Amino acid sequence: MQTAVVGVARTASRYRWTVCALLFFATVINYMDRQILGLLAPVLQHDIGWTQVQYGRIVIAFSAFYAIGLLCFGRIVDWLGTRISYALAMFVWSIAAMLHAAVGSVMGFAMVRALLGIGEGGNFPAAIKTTAEWFPRRERALATGIFNSGANIGAVFAPAIIPALAVAFGWRAAFVMVGAIGIVWLAVWFVMYRQPDGSAHDDDLALESDEAAAADAGNAKAGAPGFGVLIRKRETWAFIVGKFLTDPVWWFYLFWLPKWLNESRGMDMQHIGLPLVVIYAITTVGSIGGGWISSALLRSGWSVNAARKTAMLICACCVLPIAFVSQVHDLWVAVAIVGLAAAAHQGWSANLFTTASDMFPKRAVGAVVGIGGMAGSIGGVLFSEVIGQVLQRTGQYWALFAIGALAYLVAFGVMHVLTPKMTPAKLNG
Q1: Is 302 buried (19+), middle (13-18) or exposed (0-12) by CB count in 10 A?
Q2: CATH of domain 2-195+211-417
Q3: DSSP 8-class letter at 419
Q4: What is the pLDDT, as a whole number, of residue 210?
């Protein structure tokens, strides 16, 4: 009997990395669909004729409805489960991505970006909940870092292929071809993915420490709390603050770096790809490395609190040099500094996401990630308006990079005050 149990656990162990691979590829697609607008912005600005402020408002349309999508899918994921809710999200955002080819005005782009935001809002609540269901606590940050690195791989593939597609076939065809990739993933997801089946999953989670297992078991008894219960918890607010202050910085990199390279470094569509590929290749190392650091510290006997916060503090400090990137004249030195900051963000994000499953029961993880993600999107909306106004009035990026440099240390300090020991939230009341 014992041999059979061990065999089942090993099967679950192998399968959970297959699950991680599915999450990784979904996140690659998510970010390719998200980034294509920024990459084609110089061409679209010429064809459509939008201003800096109008482009900022198109970004805001995505950000605002992404916030709504995160909040709604956070509850949908806890309600329908990860298999159906992830498929629904992928279908919505893939159709929205392809619909970009059918519009030709500022309002049209705002509308399809809004639909894209609603669909893409399902990716992270579903992925984080899936990770919590399939991975023991000591592996979650690493697994999150791996699938979250899909954002960077998507950001590498996007500048490598999208400008070439646009030059060869036109920008409308580029939107259709990239959006259609999600439909392929959808078919693979339905064939390969299954929900955890009690026995195999539980045997695998026995790898966790007694303390972590007891925390999860105690939290599970609380059921799936509503938003009203969650919003009253300090642990929820720690996650909210972390997302609100740092997500807008990542969105700034994602949507405005191509424009920064074009406007500040004089790079056109045919030459902009290589610097972006290098930046996001560096970022991939940060995503996996940030998750690896806290997972390694946990395996060494550190507490969850110490391991996660040490990794996050390291990442927050690595962002600081970007405050001076506007004063750097050499292109590749500037690329290295931006790459370090973006890598540090992804390492930070891998650990920040994992704190949701550290502090909340699995049946509440989707909702918590949705609430925090909505806060990050609201921050993105506000920061996008600031970016548009600053660039419209001054044409200078240095103040925006300085804000991004300080955001992580401020977020870290507030999170530590709210959750000094990062103990599991008590949701029984």
Answers
A1: middle
A2: 1.20.1250.20
A3: -
A4: 40
